[in-house]
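We treat protein structure as text, and this decision shapes the records that our systems exchange. Such a record has a labelled line for the sequence and another for the backbone structure tokens. The record that follows is passed on verbatim for readers who wish to inspect the format:
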Amino acid sequence: MRSGLTRRELLLLLGNAALAVPLLGSNAWSSDPRPPGMSRADEELLDDIERTGFAFFWEQASPNTGQVKDRALAGGGDTRRISSIAATGFGLATLCIADARGYRPSQQIRGRVRKTLKWLAEKARHQHGFFFHFFDMETGEPARNTEVSSIDTSILLCGVLTCRQHFRDPEIVDFATRIYERVEWPWMLNGGDTFSMGWRPATGFIATRWDTYSELMMLYLLAVGSPSHPIPANLWNNFKRPLIDYEGLRYVSTRAPLFIHQYSHAFFDFRNQHDKYANYFENSVNATRAHKKFCLSLKARFPDYSEDLWGITSSDSAHGYVAWGGPPEMGPIDGSIVPSAAGGSLPFLPDECIDVLRAVRRRFGPKVWKRYGYADAFNPVNGWMDADVVGINVGIMVLMAENLRSGLIWKTFMANPEAQQAMEKVGFVRA
């Protein structure tokens, strides 16, 4: 039923306090946790996405180190060992959701979080607090040619700080605080006024910088808010914010996949506030609307795109992993659908994104929906179906589904005083 206020309008109107579902215990919810405007069918779909995503983060993480695989077979039974530090970050936040939702006994979840953070604090290889992007999930040995990554470390830290607030366990709090406060943010500036994308043992700092609007907001805010090694708040002004105009929509963006408008928003709550440049939540709303329009504009080339079947972002393809999207058109677009494009944008366009996720599951069933939820990508035009899920794409869907349902990750992460202070320092004010 689509009458009265839309889900997105309710999300903005009610804000964190009203949408966050009150906990009755460590993992118990009220009898009817649905936010206003959400049907029981919607709630069940989002819960399925979260449960299957949790299964990935639980089963495809090392029980010894807690580190999560970069990818795995969508149906389970995967034997690969390469972990992604960003997937581990999304996984830690997912463990908070699983604890709150009662997907597994709280004691078991706490134990996994404790072990994960202990390994990161005491055994994982790092440079000035920054972690390698890819590594062996058991030994911690960096993968060949991988970098110490500024942005992927930031995703990890967001998960770490979410756990610090959710569990309030003395050991978890101690490990999380040590991991965050160990990071020497000025080092990653490498003498400049924007962050390097990373560092490699053989060649040093990567020349490319985080100097244009993207998923970088979490990186700068975590650094500004650091109580131990902060950067000056005015560095927030140093990344460019180019404007895109597309079919009557105007928003800050660049030529990049849709996920750049999702990742920082999974943790930092940008609703109903703005800095001197933009309201970034509404910016992501416009970016998502523009992306839908862009996909529908390709219908003559790819007849599978429709009102309830659209969305592409960095993902697997029939020819390997690619960064694709638009507008403007980016990458070798071939008619593929990437569920995390809609799944990661759920708070921005709830009705439209839920329609896509429901249509994918209804129309393609077990070809696309498996043990760990949606396969990373598929192509209705040529029949290609991905065998894998990718950890960061699973993670963004889980977190955004829960943010739409309850605001839990927003509320929990934003309870960190460092996050609040960072946003104040760079100039955010209430709308």
